[in-house]
Amino acid sequence: MKKEIILKKFSFIALTVLFIFSIHSTAAAAGLFGAPQTVSKEAGGLNTAIGYRYHEDTYTGNTDHIIRQNEIYSQAAYGANNRWEIYARIGVADMKILDVFSSTDTFTTTNKNDFADNRKYFGTLGSKGFYPINETFGIGAFIQGTYYFNKFTDRVAGNSGSKPFTTDLKVDNLWDVNFGVGFQATLPCGIKLYAGPYIYYSEAKVSLAADIPGLEYADGNVSLKNKSIAGGFAGIDIPLAKGFRLNVETQFADRFSSGASISYVY
Amino acid sequence: MKSYLTLSVLFIFLTVAYSYSADSSSAILPQKLSSPQAVLPTSDAKEIPAKSSDNPIDAIDNEYKDDQNLDYANDTFKEERIEVADPLEPFNRAMYQFNDKLYFWALKPVAQGYQKAVPEPARISVKNFFSNLAFPSRFLSCLLQADFSGAATETGRFTINTIWGIGGLLDPSSGKELDLQKQDTDLGQTLGVYGVGHGFYIVWPVFGPSSPRDSINLAGNYFLYPPWYIQPWYASLGVSTYDLVNSTSLRIGDYEALKDAAIDPYVAFRDAYIQYRMKQVKARTTKIFPSKPLEVNSPAPEPVSTGKGN
Hints:
The structure holds 2 protein chains of 2 kinds. Chain A is mostly beta strands.
């Protein structure tokens, strides 16, 4: 019996460590929306989580660009009555903007086409409310906003005419706000399935340090915004052992994003 | 004749030296020593409850008989005697006074002010945070003791508390569900587990009671405690001082209570320290080598029944 307990503990620790170290080191997390209903105890209590999200979307400035981000975050939340929850997240994220350095001028060549930067910090605040229709079904709403505290920066080099150049592209003040409505079905064993629509707005200021013919954003402080404003999300929240829960979610707006988090309920 | 005399002198010297360095062979095993310090046994004759009797003469007789029945060489009594050599007593007493003044004049007032300003849950969270940072020392100690289960538990605790405990501010690992308890061990205990004795008692300024063996723990903690790596040096000192003030704020009164209860506080703290460390080492040894017979851990014989009394 004792051996079994020790074995279980070892398996649990091993799985936890494996989960932590399986996350890519440059990965960073704004995050999932989660089930509409809080996972905190009914009497009120904390729950904490670690999560990862792969985010992909189309942003539009002067032209359209696909943006990819890996986000990893830590979350602390307080909820009560199975009805409401407030949460805060802090995390790091990388960013890749495809084809932003592609020149439109035949006399300008660059050493790369994509913008990439790593490990920038962000913070998220959010809240959600839930109304149970019956024992199985319920409806809820959430709002969450994220702000990136650091600038994403990448350097590009090349030749313009016969002159070599090196310049930086900066993505500053990236923020987003999301609002959504979720429908939830609670299955046996505490498994929660949820889905719903959401709207969002995201913006960042983009500027190139030098005016290079054929490169975008040389005129400075161009706003980069999300192309579509609405999307949908669906996910599942599964209770694991010993107070832990696994949440897996997919979001779709202009492109697919998905992620997972493991929460611990105090 | 000359060589006989030399051998005799050498023998006497070794005998005296051995008896003076008390438990240098093992902290676990209490040994007879000729330390000038008095020792406070944890159980003495005064603590034995008086037996009731209707006849007062019988009661007195019984009392004397109880005294006669007390076998001071009894193993039960022996194993609770805590003895340590104290060759540096004058220095130690001076350092004790220094630390005492440091506590009452500086640490306690600051800790009291801090206690009033910061609510207890927040102070407990800070304590958890610093305790979580001390993971490397506990982990390494477990490994050195070949306590792989303990090392795994510590790894699990550190991982879970760091991630789901908001950087270690909370301690979900100690909860009923996870039940991953902190391994109460350090490098000094590791040496103790392998039979290294205290040596002698020493009181360090600021750091307090210790021994040569446990001083290695102080040195080890310097390298294994991450706050000491903060640069510049005064920042790391500030962080460590804050840790000290915070932990003191959570146990104001403990020191005073023990001090007030003691006739000679220096002796009381010395014995309490040695006993506390000995019990820690004993607990670790029992955990790691459950089958290893320990003299100090041997079951006490049943008390001899006098056939009288209750």
